[in-house]
From TrEMBL:
<keyword id="KW-0106">Calcium</keyword>
<dbReference type="InterPro" id="IPR018247">
    <property type="entry name" value="EF_Hand_1_Ca_BS"/>
</dbReference>
<keyword id="KW-0256">Endoplasmic reticulum</keyword>
<keyword id="KW-0413">Isomerase</keyword>
<dbReference type="GO" id="GO:0003755">
    <property type="term" value="F:peptidyl-prolyl cis-trans isomerase activity"/>
</dbReference>
<dbReference type="InterPro" id="IPR046357">
    <property type="entry name" value="PPIase_dom_sf"/>
</dbReference>
<feature type="domain" description="EF-hand">
    <location>
        <begin position="500"/>
        <end position="535"/>
    </location>
</feature>
<feature type="domain" description="PPIase FKBP-type">
    <location>
        <begin position="245"/>
        <end position="332"/>
    </location>
</feature>
<dbReference type="InterPro" id="IPR001179">
    <property type="entry name" value="PPIase_FKBP_dom"/>
</dbReference>
<dbReference type="Pfam" id="PF00254">
    <property type="entry name" value="FKBP_C"/>
</dbReference>
<feature type="domain" description="PPIase FKBP-type">
    <location>
        <begin position="356"/>
        <end position="444"/>
    </location>
</feature>
<comment type="function">
    <text>PPIases accelerate the folding of proteins during protein synthesis.</text>
</comment>
<dbReference type="GO" id="GO:0005509">
    <property type="term" value="F:calcium ion binding"/>
</dbReference>
<keyword id="KW-0732">Signal</keyword>
<keyword id="KW-0697">Rotamase</keyword>
<keyword id="KW-0677">Repeat</keyword>
<keyword id="KW-0479">Metal-binding</keyword>
Amino acid sequence: TELSVERRFVPESCPRAVRPGDFVRYHYLGAFPDGTRFDSSYDRGSTFNVFVGKGQLIAGMDQALVGMCVNERRFVKIPPKLAYGSEGVPGVIPPNAVLHFDVLLIDLWNSEDEVQVQIYFKPEKCPRTVQVSDFVRYHYNGTFLDGTLFDSSHNRMRTYDTYVGIGWLIPGMDQGLLGMCVGEKRIITIPPFLAYGEDGDGKEIPGQASLVFDVVLLDLHNPKDGIAIENQIVPESCERRSQTGDFLRYHYNGTLLDGTLFDSSYSRNRTYDTYVGKGYVIAGMDEGLLGVCTGEKRRIIIPPHLGYGEEGRGKIPGSAVLVFDIHVVDFHNPSDSVSITVHYKPSNCTVLSKKGDYLKYHYNASLLDGTLLDSTHSLGKTYNIVLGSGQVVLGMDMGLQDMCVGERRTVVIPPHLGYGEDGVEGEVPGSAVLVFDIELLELVSGLPEGYMFVWNGEVSPNLFEEIDQNHDGEVLLEEFSEYIQTQVETGKGKLAPGFDFEKIVKNMFTNQDRDGNGKVTAEEFKLKDQEAKEEHDEL
């Protein structure tokens, strides 16, 4: 004769219970005491949706639903006076029938509800939060209040990308995303009148359904954003900053806003080398690399419209904000020449190095960032060259000019005067600016340009006869070599310093052997000034 409610299952968590005036969605089985079923929401494939306490239900059910939690199951016995009484329902429920209902509560909300936000993870650093008109990328699991999953971006392995606050989302999600930080995780509970309302979405979401979204925000920007630069390490000494048209070598780690690594020059063990301000890199990087110093480390945050846009690229998803942590190794301009800084010059600096001089010097060679490449000090011997003979890179030939013994200087050589784009495999990176700290230890003056041998005194008028020791009218290489060696040893002549004796002599002999038969005759034999005179006469 009285209402009976048996709580057959009560969930551990019950944040909210039914109150009069709430709207509920529930499943039920309706039967008579003998077990005969008279109705079932399961058979219809849809929940029963109704307001509680507003007379839309029989009195017994109105009372039995109060206090229920979502996912709670109750077995309810309702006497006739709280059901259909003495009249019953013709053809369905006889008069004075006791009704048994097996009830499972699926959903619960009130017309005064608002969006509920539960933050369960928030990053320590939150430099920016979602505002109206921002564009966001987030992952979510969408469930009903009873935990039934209806959608998941994780299953599609693709973020949901949208503007916030301009009507692209259901109103409740527009509200629920505001104020989020990148990396934040929150649960957003949305009543149906701020979601898909009475009709649902026509697919997975039924009418009048509360929705629960478990959201993690991965990305955030605004179409009005420019790049953002965070200086991390700026060298105390910065004599030069990069400008449009400069060529940079830099290392970088590229990540998304949530910290996901998508690329790294370090993993390839090679710098990224490019011109700046000429469209060789994405627009945001072109801008972010201007004004940097060699050795500087900075973070460049690039919105997608200055990055890879809506389409993305490779491991970079569409509409992604990019974060580059860069380290500038060096930069130069194609118009650069050799830079010379003199640190010490002896007071008695009268003899300056020139083309053809034989030089002995010590050096330390490094990159602009200070990475040591090579050092003669570690080898324990000097580096010896003939200046201007192509024995070193062009920039070094230029940097050693007009130097006196004892002088110390730093020579900075751009790559187009050094080892170029290719560098030296395993030793010098391609397109690297080189820095040489040099000390000149010895200088042997060279011969006039074009000469490999000169006389220190008067030339014998019978020179050919003196060379032709066996007086057969022909001079062989052996005779020629022996004669030149004697002149050098006795101080009568001088060879160009720094070259191999045999190579010089052979070169001189070949010049005299005009018919190439391996012998020099008196008719072929001419001194250099005689050759020049004959050419002049011919002209």
